Amino acid sequence: MSKAKQKHIKNKSLLPWYLVLIVALVVIDQAVKHWVTQNIPLNSSKTLIPGLLDLDNLHNTGAAWSMLEGRQWFFAIITVIAIIVVAWLMWKNKTAAWMMTGLSLIMAGAVGNFIDRLSQGYVVDMFALQNVNFPVFNVADACLTIGVFIMLIVVLKEDDHK
User: Fold this and answer.
1) Where are the domains of the chain?
2) Catalytic machinery residues
3) pLDDT for 53-100, tens place per residue?
């Protein structure tokens, strides 16, 4: 393969593929939230994996551990800013696969929880780790956490190469 063709492939935008990933993750997040609200009574729990994981149906008007509870306007402003910044970073880094992976997960998580906050005034949380002091979370929260972790690794690796 010629160097010109290799450079073209290397510099090809990954944006369309990652937009599909974002949409898929948001759909999964919303589908799981819908299923939980339809099948588990509010403030109830069902064991999913004995000794490890429960499925709860909780309404969270705050952030992790219900911090800043009831301040939906604050979360709306922060989320809009985050979505704009992440979209800009995705546009600037559209050929960097790991960067795009981390940013896409962050975007999917932000959008998934934003949909809940706008439509319901709270976020549906359902995954509860047994025997661990960790907040009950949802698919969007998992996306955010994994995305931030990937971004930290990407940034630290970039610093190593300087």
Assistant:
1) 13-160
2) 125, 141
3) 999 999 998 766 566 666 677 888 999 999 999 999 999 999 999 999
